[in-house]
Amino acid sequence: MRILHFIPYYRQPKEWLLPLLETLREQSLREEVHIAYIGKFPDADMANVVIHKVGEKTRRYNSKMRLGRMLNTVSRLRRSLDSSTMLATLCKIMPDIVHIHGCWDRSVSSVMQIAQSRGFITVYSPHNEINNNIIRGLRWNDYKLSYICYQRKMFKRADHIIAESGIEYNSLRRVKWMPHVEMVENSDILSSQEAALALEAYYQKVIDSHNYKRMTVNDKEAVCSLMHVGLEQENVHKILSASNLLNLRNLTSAQWRRIMLMAYDENIMYIVAKAIERERLQVADISPEDIDRFDTVREKNRYPLKTEYIDDEHKAVKKRLHTLLANDPAEIRRIVYGLYNLKQLYSKHDMTLRHLSDIYEVIKYQNYDEKRLDYVLQASGLWLFTSHILQILSETHYLEDGYMPIKPTNDKDTEKMRKAIVATFR
To answer: pTM value?
Structure first.
């Protein structure tokens, strides 16, 4: 686990923060702690923590405009970090989590924006500085203008927010800035060892909740291989290529943990279990439902894909498809019904790998007239959607060209579909 902490330069960090990070690194052998900072770093014994200095720059706004003159008077809006050095630090460390500390400074907002634009998980600690009693006593120019310009956006943009006290937790939950606000007590309340253990457990919960962001190319390739093996219905001696099989046998316990979490989220646990048994893979006992994670904002559809009927309330659509397929065999009707229901799931952001696996089986393991299916797909308006689905099935389930009824299409709409499949809503 690799954590990068960003500490702004406008004030000294909390007196308990640096000792807590040092204790966190000493207690956990698998924890790698980095600190990025701007300005002068305080004198502290940080032998086990890697420290990175980030450059800064000062910006002047157009003084001919009234807003520009106002912004020039606010020093905290003019100061900012050097984006190139911060980005280089992120790319060098490649942290699992970017933990940002403090409020009322533009550099904090810039780090949040840079980290999220590169796909890193962000955790934000305001350190009780968003309290209403504190805000009322601040100067309008220095703080409330900062709040309008960037501070409020930070709370909406952060993946997770840490509250250090019950008062801060209740205030953040009351204004509904972020659904994932959790209280993690610091070493002012707990001992350093207890606070470090609580923070480590919180980091693990965040990482497990954003499991897909941390999956490597080998992890995703392994998921595709497991689906291909688990759905195979023919007695084939060699299902996978030598490279894919070697990748499965070389997976570590941490990789299997990520794979199992994704299989649970996408409702393909039974497929993965069948593939593990068929290939006789050695896997540790992992129960994804017992792993502590944040609740999803919205649960995806976990039911199998319906291929026996049209799951739609529009009577006109049902009548048109029933009329079109009146004289067709059951195999073609199952494919068309499945594709239509899959398109409805995609439009509702509910399509999962389980649904793709169901349509994969229907397309591959049935005998049907491909020319007739081509005509029906064009007449029903499903031809283009089907061509996108076939392209994705060739990547995720290794569907061969010989089993494709029409030619696949790979364009920007296909890329949108790829991203929609694994959206976790966490």
So the answer is: 0.79
